[in-house]
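Quick start: what a row looks like.
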Amino acid sequence: MIKSLKSVALLGLILVISTSCDNDFTNIESNIQGIKNFEATSKLFPFVTRTKTFTPFSGGTNDAVGVKTNDLDGNLFGIYNSPTATYGATAASVTAQVAPLTYNPDFGDVNRSVESIWLNIPYFSTLESTDDDGANTYQLDSIIGQTNQKFKLYIYRSNYVLRDLDPNSNFQDPQCYYSNQGDLIETNAELLYKDEEFEISNTEHTVEELVDGVSEVTERIAPGIRINLLKSNPTDIDTNRTFWENIFFANQGNDVLSTKSNFKDFFRGIIIKVEEIDSANPNGSLTYLNFNSANIIFDYTNQEEEDADEPYDSSNETIYTLQFTENIVNTFKQINVVDDHDGDEDNLYLKGIDGSMAVLELFSGNIENEDGDMVPTLDYFNSKKDKWLINEANLVFYVNQDLVGGDEPDRLTLYDLKNNLPIIDYFLDGSTNTAQPEFSKTAYSEMLTRDSDDNGVRYKIRLTQHITNILQSDSTNVKLGLFIANNVNSLSESKIQGINRDEDDTTIDMVPSTSVLSPKGTILHGYNDNVDTPLRAEFEIFYTEPEN
């Protein structure tokens, strides 16, 4: 319901602003109609920039405050060690609820036995080729960090209840879960499986069976997490057999397997926990998990199957399937992060996950007018109403290559911090690419310009209509937020723990989820007298005015 109302409000905002935009251009053009000679020029305007961390800096492995990480557009998994030393490393774990496809199962009564419990969570990947033997080669769509690096993987049964609705709102609002709640969720969890040398791989999984005494591949499965939870580790056989028999066989006919709500209260989900092998050198790689295609397959046999003629009737197939259709929560552990850059103006520290952003205050300070006098910048700009036709307005930020170690994010996004929405130029950019979101809305926010060595050089944001609305429609000159974006198409937002919305752009209570889902970071030169002029951030307006 909340999302629906927000969508309606967003649509209304776009329509109102778009209508005002049309009127603005009509009015401007009518004022200069018939004039033949124009002088096109540009002017640099001062502004304030500063780093703002999403949450108070703690310097520990878990922040005292987190960002909302349930109901995200994706889920991170693995370890990312940033090449920029100030950002340290991040270990991304996941807690997920599961629910059966069917209820009140009949597992049979005689000679029941568990054959396998397969946990299957695919990565996002693309099939590149298939050889003559049917073997497939895949490319992982999104893998970040040092590939071919191992880390520790633990699978737990969760005993923590993940609610759908918040009891503090009289069960009217969705329940929020946060990035820093890993320790809380993992309380009293039961360890089911561990692999202390797990590696994210693009290799497909295969299922083999004996056919006429010869082992043959009967199924090929795309890359992902694929673990037989009968085992307690990769080399074990069936240590967990009794555990799973007690979950399913022992509860046949009981209420816990009769409804979704009963099952969720009984089996509260699994925890996919990641840890570094060496905290001093936390190498690893990180990717996104595709829970839409994930499941747990409980494969068993019974006397009916043993007595059946081959092939066994598929309608009586002894398989029980659980799907990941409920709450899924990302939790993050920060490793080797020691510096707090909140408030830094010389450099802007932009980092995803539960990291940091830049706050911008346009038209700040004083500027020299045509008479050589220093006047308030916003007053000077407002005096150009009906005198300037805004052709283009840009923000340009330069990467501080002395501080950044590489692997910078390709895209940034600019938000109106009062309304927690991208600026109007985002919505007016029709270059949306859902298949390759890195190429979406590139007129509004250009991809990072890189040099010949692939080092990041410059980001450019166009805010032409945003500036036009300030000049011609008396729109409020709100504070703006500059964030990292892994997918600029996404408009989902993540609440900051413990901060309530007050429609004041000085209170940052929400951040774009697209930033939470990006582990990367960059450091930009700010707009400050301490920054060398060629590298200083730029706020430039190109305009046309009649010649006198």
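That is the whole record. The longest helix spans residues 2-31. The longest strand covers residues 113-122.
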